[in-house]
Amino acid sequence: MPNQINKKRISLMSAIILILAITLLGCSSETKESTESTSKNSNMITFAWPRDVGALNPHVYNPNQLFAQSMVYEPLVSYQDGGELKPHLAESWKISEDGTEYVFNLRQDVKFSDGTSFNAEIVKKNFDTILTNIDLHSWLGFIPKIAQTEVIDEHTFKLTLKEPYYPTIQELAVVRPVRFLGEAGFPESGDTSEGIAQPVGTGPWVLDEYKVDEYAIFKRNENYWGELPNVEKIHVKVIPDAETRVLAFEKGDLDLIYGEGVINLDAFKQLQSTENYETSVSEPVATRQLVMNTNKEQLSDLRVRQALHYGFDKEAMVEGVTSGLEEKADYILPTNFPYTSNVDATTVDYNVEKAKQLLDEAGWKLPEGKDIREKDGKPLEFELMYDSAESIQKLMAETLQSEWAGLGVKLNIVGVELTTQVERFKANEFDMNFFSNYGAPYDPHTYVNIVATDGFGFKEAISSYPNKEELLNQIAEVKQTTDENERQQLYTTILGSLQEQGAIVPISYIKKIAIHQKNVSDFTFPANRDEHPFTGISVNE
What is each CA distance from 370 to 31, 217, 273, 356, 405, in whole angstroms? Predict the structure, then answer.
């Protein structure tokens, strides 16, 4: 009898175990199937980004990531190749003759991702919310100049400025803060600087899944008013380490790596050389510059600044440091930006003898038996500040230090954190500093604005220019002119003067890189430096 009971118990336990095993196997299969459907969706692009995408608040800055904001939220006007400004959420616009009134005719077929209508009322609400935090956004030139926002009718919105400011339309193309949040996205207070309720936009993508510091999955907005994306989902994996991103790509866990500085340039060249992947490099998006502070006595002499420019082999340095991905820059702004293609400035070629001659003429002599030039008993010595986290800046600083030593110039290089670099630049606590302009759609107007603005470091850099006051007047004038030909002439003069006086030395043209698996096609770089790159991209079976 005990044996029969034991047998029954064993049979019962075996049955229970079998049922549990089947149940667990089913759960496991479901989990595995669910995970694989997310990670290996045949119509999904998976790519890596070094940081979390943020809360996707269209009206604030870090930690929100620009590319992600641009996936969800859209502008009135879009910036296209060659600086062309095209209608987007606004079908058209009219500007008054005096340049102070802008009337926008809004698209009538646009809805937010929650189904609510895009109209003039919500445009005004977004603008008014931005204006309540004007100090936060005053860096964008047209925002402090806004005098009034008006709803003319359901699909007509009017913006009135206190004074003419021609870059207004161009600045409306930026990714933040002038893009539009739906009504359901506003917090109870109405103040989006405190956060948003949910990311509701009109864009081609909607946030579908999100785990902070791990991933974000965007799905296609099936009700999008414009051309639907080809892929159904974009899976953004947060991978802070550049080497780990490369390994993930090589394993096939990523379809795309894209951006500026997202992986080591040597790693990019190595992946490119295998011919197992598709790679591309963008047109110039900005210029890497060396800024000299002419407030400093030794740098106040144009001949010294020119000598330093002649005294290093720019082409060899850029080729060596960037593995040929960047190219030497002849002009302080890339020539593919609006108003920059006709700049009349002398380009400088490497010429050591010319550099030495200029230093001699400036009174900086090399005493016998010494390595450093002197004048009135003082050595020709400078400090160059660079971002310690930026390997390209560091290598370029070391190259300049070595080359200028051959001229009899002592260069002390100091690596600092980015926040310190920015603070010291703004506080006029620098001899030399690396800088890059903002790119499209901000330039050239944003660049010349900061040159003329206190607290950016550039006003100190041009302090000894003999034509400084004239230059500042021209910068003020170019922002207000309503005549296109006059504007072009002013930019030609301004950018030429800035470069000819030698305090801003163009080093190289910065470019974006992209590398993707062979089954990814139709990748293109956006004209707007901050936009997402997913328009038109496809995945082939």
Answer: 74, 63, 47, 15, 12
Are 94 and 130 within one domain? yes
Same-domain pairing of 269 and 398: no
Q: How many residues are present in the chain? A: 541
Mean pLDDT of the chain: 91
Q: What are phi and psi of 400, to 5 degrees?
A: -60, -40
The 10s digit of each residue's pLDDT in 405-456 is: 999 999 999 999 989 999 999 898 999 999 999 999 999 999 998 898 887 8
Residues 421, 520 within the same domain? no
Strand, coil or helix: 474: helix
Q: Which residues constitute the domain of residue 525?
A: 46-52+203-282+512-539
Q: What is the DSSP letter of 282?
A: P
97 domain-assigned: yes
- Count of structural domains within the chain: 3
Alpha helices in 406-483 (DSSP H): 418-426, 445-451, 458-461, 468-480
Same domain, 223 and 180: no
> Which parts of 193-246 are beta strand (E)?
205-211, 215-220, 233-238
Place of tokens 């670099």: 421
Mean pLDDT of 204-231: 96
Q: Given 143, 161, 194, which residue is the final one in a domain? A: 194
Whether the CB-CB separation of 336 and 510 falls below 8 Å is answered with no
Give pTM, 2 decimals.
0.87
| Whole-number Å distance between alpha carbons of 414 and 394 | 9
Max Cα separation, the chain? Answer: 116
Residue pLDDT, tens place only, 223-261: 999 999 999 999 999 999 999 999 999 999 999 999 998
The amino acid present at 468, given as its one-letter code, is K
Are 199 and 208 in contact by the 8 Å Cβ rule? The answer is no
Question: Could you tell me if 520 and 255 are in contact, meaning their C-beta atoms sit under 8 angstroms apart?
Answer: yes
What CATH number is given to the structural domain containing 497? 3.10.105.10
How many CB atoms neighbour CB 83 within 10 A? Answer: 19
The whole-angstrom separation of Cα 530 and Cα 527 is: 9
Both 352 and 311 in one domain: the answer is: yes
In a domain, 31, yes or no: no
Confidence of residue 15 (pLDDT cuts 50, 70, 90): very low
For the four alpha carbons of 298, 304, 305 and 309, in that order, the dihedral sign comes to negative
Pair (419, 470) in one structural domain: yes
DSSP 143: G
Asked whether residue 366 falls in the same domain as residue 457, the answer is yes
Q: Which two tokens stand for residue 210?
A: 């999100």
